[in-house]
Amino acid sequence: MTKTISGRCLCGAITITLDSFDGHVGACHCGMCRRWSGGPPLTVNGGKTLRLSGEAHVRRYRSSDWAERAFCERCGSGLFYHLLKTGDHFVWAGLFDALPGAVFESQIFIDRKPDWYEFANPTENLTEAEVFAKYAPRGG
After folding, report:
1. Which residue, of 11, 116, 126, 127, has the fewest CB within 10 Å?
2. In this structure, is residue 137 part of a structural domain?
3. According to the model, what pLDDT value does residue 140 have?
């Protein structure tokens, strides 16, 4: 069962609404995500289409050939990670006051996770090679 959820950046200039929250929460341990967010970001799948209010305040940073990251220009809150080839968005879970029925289910770049923290939840774990095989663009 999917639910509609809404969240916002720290200053409230941007609101994100997801019409089909499926309850899945994941974490990324890659170096870029950890550097950008100060730790492993926890995300929800925002699908291919996000409803944004305050879109004029959204800034996008092309962090690789295959993805971009978005943040609020006013308060700096990280908003989402966007896969350019598939159009999928992974939205920061912390933007939402509530995530009804949420379950922490997956971790990616697990082989890049530093040894100084560990999540206790049993999850699906993908290595860097497995993530690239699944999501990175192939060919031109």
Report:
1. 116
2. no
3. 44
